[in-house]
Target: DOMON-like domain-containing protein
Amino acid sequence: MSVALAVAGSEQGPGWLLSYHLRGEVGGLRLPEPTLPGPADGLWQHTCFEAFVARAGESAYREFNFSPSGQWAAYRFSAERVRDLPAEAGQAPVVPDLQLETTEHALTLLAWLPHHALPAPAAGQPLQLGLTAVLEDRLGRLSYWALRHPGARPDFHHRDSFALDLLPPLFDPPTASRDTA
Model:
């Protein structure tokens, strides 16, 4: 499995484009049936791709789940596995744009996350990123994939699994236009 991250803009403004790519016997995976796009809980119980994002040195983080079904989840945590429901209720809705392509030997899921869904980086501090996947085979067995497993058992919420540091600036500041006439 490979994952790529691009920081770019779209019609909705800046954001992240995550590209999850699997190569191999894709037919051996149990993929959720396509459904109407929308938020859903429990996506990690089946084939699902995830991203965990936090500011370095802070206990708060965000979790995003992307299902091949077209469903997603966006959570905010104040500490490891402690949901921050007031913060979730106070933010603009997170609506990622998901696109799925499958062939006999490859699966690619593209997930566009808008800028407002991500924590703002603190001056000089990186954002820490954990990229993960849960894969379910045809027999219902789950395997857990991550950039780093810090313990003997997979724990995507463990901060040591946030293995990638992204240094600011992650987005270019808006430029002022000048009238040169």
